[in-house]
């Protein structure tokens, strides 16, 4: 079968022929129709991720059809599925255990004609979505769902700020928050992406490259009850200033750097919480999928590349040119 293989530090993205795995007890083989990229895959190809292992087939997100099943997986035969890439979460809903892992490192991932997974991580593909839209869902959507609902306790009428809305996670955060009845504001490094966010229901947006982005946001929105910022970097220092009393700031990454030195006073005086989060539980995946189906949410697919052009897809992500998810069409 053909696969996108992380071959070595020098050759991190190679499309090559590898042997097709076969399912053992509790496992199934999914014939992948489409696989989506996440920033995680990009970090791995850059050598900037813990536990890198060569060779590994990349990819956490995929949609496809179950073509072979080991003992206990027969009920899934022939079914159209998506895969929860959040594996071995563990016993505490609040945090993942020490055996937690994400599909696509260390286990072989979805950027291949077939992937081997435990049947417990299969979910029915939403029927209103095509293969590429369905493949866009799992990792980013699960992370966005936990960030907004479990961590920030989003409720109708909240004012929400999403920093860097062009991200794969950013478009899901926007869609979730709008569907839940929040008033959503966004930032982006591109005016075109700000316009596209407005088409998806954002009230307004500002370019984070402008000197006065924080004042402009305050002028537009007053203040925010929830901020999701997984860019971080130096600009994060201004975030507490645009928060309302009792605000929750949630983050799950740091695309633009680390948390800088920040003024502590607004944090304690406004009783602001800064909350870290990562991926989510099986229950959250189920709830997220129910939300997709209930609200007929269609993920934002930026561009679809053939498997053979995986390298170009990764380059686009590296340049942050996308709005939403970059997807590989596999079969
Ligand atoms: N812990 C977890 O479970 C988890 C899960 C998912 C993602 N993550 C992390 O979360 C981050 C986003 O992931 P992703 O896959 O959605 O990434 P992505 O699709 O590659 O998007 C990255 C986006 O970051 C924004 N950005 C870059 N520099 C910025 C800056 N200086 N200020 C504000 N925004 C900036 C850009 O938004 P514009 O294009 O709008 O300018 C860009 O599109 C990554 O760091 C990733 O590793 C973590």
From TrEMBL:
Q: Which GO terms describe its molecular function?
A: oxidoreductase activity
Known InterPro entries for this protein? ADH-like_C, ADH-like_N, ER, GroES-like_sf, NAD(P)-bd_dom_sf, Zinc_ADH-like
Where's the Enoyl reductase (ER) domain? 4-328
Signal peptide (UniProt feature, chain positions): none
- Which Pfam families is this protein grouped with? ADH_N, ADH_zinc_N
Give the residue spans that cross the bilayer. Answer: none
Protein name as it appears in the record: Zinc-binding dehydrogenase
Q: Which organism is it from?
A: Mucilaginibacter achroorhodeus
